[in-house]
Amino acid sequence: MIYLRSFKLSDHISRNPNIYPDHVFKHMAGEVLLFDKVTVLYGNNGSGKSTLLNVIANKLGISGAEPMTSYGYSLFVKQFLDLSSCQLGYDKQERELQQLPEGSRYMKSEDILYEIKKIQQASVLREGLMHEKRKNGMSKTEAEQYEGSYAFQQKVKNIQFSQEKYSNGETSMQFFEEYLLPGQLYLLDEPETSLSPANQIKLAEQINELARYLDSQFIIATHSPFVLGTLQAKIYNLDANPLQTAEWYELDNVRFFQQFFDKHRPLFDNG
Question: AAA+ ATPase domain spans which residues (predicted)?
């Protein structure tokens, strides 16, 4: 399912090189990105892939979008967002969608690390669980009653007990298993954070399955060769000028890994 069909970046770039986010996207002003079931935004540090994800999240108004006015350029950010545009996809009756699925969200690597930290601190864990309940419509009175209940106390204990046994990477995998659901649009910023190569591949396979069989769509910022090589995705290379798509094995970061291991091949051959 394609929920977000395309996104067009503002074609207006301020002459002032310090204006945010104009200067981040000066090399791809006015570009149109066409999205597949899984689309990857690849680029090295400073390429703008995380900023682009957040721009899209803000334009769509989905959960998890990070306010961009905190950078002190609220008027310029508003102008950039106003001059950017998006097109939603079609439903199964070929009618243009009027809105995204309610559970669609933008997940940053910081969100995952926060979940891990939340598990490590009981008070933060309790606060996080109650915040989720209130966000899902539970009244203040109901929340207070629930927080004092035996069921709530047991849930806190069970989460703490189960998570204490796992590493950060294993906790991250549990996070994705809980939050990546069928029939949603997900914007993921470097989801491989804290994951071993084996778990990076496992996560990418999970994403492939959700996209292919369970009507989810993903737009992912990553430079992990393991994720890039496993995802069945369209890949935009944000390091290229002009913006262009590429195969995963053509990307600089992947080639760097290849050259590194080729350099040390004798160690493997003699092992």
Answer: 35-241
Segment (H or E) for 34: strand 32-34
Angle 252-7-202 from CA coordinates, rounded to 5°: 50
What are the residues whose beta carbons fall under 8 Å from the beta carbon of 236, sequence distance 6 or more?
Answer: 33, 39, 40, 41, 42, 243, 244, 245, 246
**Would residue 251 count as lying in a domain?**
yes
Helix locations, 165-264, DSSP H: 168-179, 197-213, 225-230, 252-263
Is the domain of 127 the same as that of 217?
no
Is residue 104 domain-shared with residue 123, that is, in the same domain?
A: no
Whether residues 120 and 103 fall in one domain: no
| pLDDT tens by residue, 24-58 | 898 899 999 999 999 999 998 888 899 999 999 99
Q: Is residue 225 part of a domain?
A: yes
Structural domain containing residue 133? 112-164
> Which parts of the chain sit beneath pLDDT 70?
69-73, 113-125, 157-171, 271
List residues bridging with 105 in a β-sheet.
63, 186
Domain count, the chain: 2
Alpha-carbon gap, residue 253 to 8, rounded angstroms: 26
H/E segment holding residue 154: helix 150-164
Same domain, 22 and 102: yes
Say if residue 249 is in the same domain as residue 149: no
Strands 185-189, 217-221: pairing kind: parallel
Residues counted in the chain: 271
CB–CB of 71/20 below 8 Å?
Answer: yes
